[in-house]
Amino acid sequence: MSLISLMGLMSLIKPAAAVAAASLSLSPASASKNIGDVFNVDIVVDTGGDPAAGVSAIVNYDVARLTAVQVTAGTVLAG
Q1: SS3 state of residue 9
Q2: pLDDT of the residue at 77
Q3: DSSP strands (E only) in the chain
Q4: What is the largest CA-CA distance in the chain?
Q5: d(CA 64, CA 76)
């Protein structure tokens, strides 16, 4: 069976908000999956304790190796 790794397949652009300490990460940061597996990857924002009204992220990945099945907005910043 072929395995793929999330590391190297996805990269994030820095947060659009001008928060000095903010960072974005993927959770899990890496995983090996079999072809055909469906799995979740969360985009996690860490503002370093600074307030944030919103966050924007662009996730780049190899469409020949991964297919986005569903994108769901989180609830942390929901009004």
Answers
A1: coil
A2: 62
A3: 3-5, 10-12, 23-27, 32-34, 42-46, 59-61
A4: 45
A5: 32
Task: Please give the Cα distance from 22 to 39 (Å, whole number).
Answer: 26
Please state, as a whole number, how many other Cβ atoms lie within 10 Å of the Cβ of residue 36.
7
Q: What angle do CA 69, 74, 75 make, to 5 degrees?
A: 150
Tokens 């072809």 belong to which residue?
Answer: 35
Per-residue pLDDT band for 50 (boundaries 50, 70, 90) equals confident
Query: Exposure pattern of 42-62 as b/e (b: 16+ CB <10 Å)?
Result: eeebeeeeeebeebeeeeeee
Asked if the model's pLDDT at residue 12 lies above 60, the reply is no
What distance in Å separates the CA atoms of residue 18 and residue 25, rounded to the nearest whole number?
17
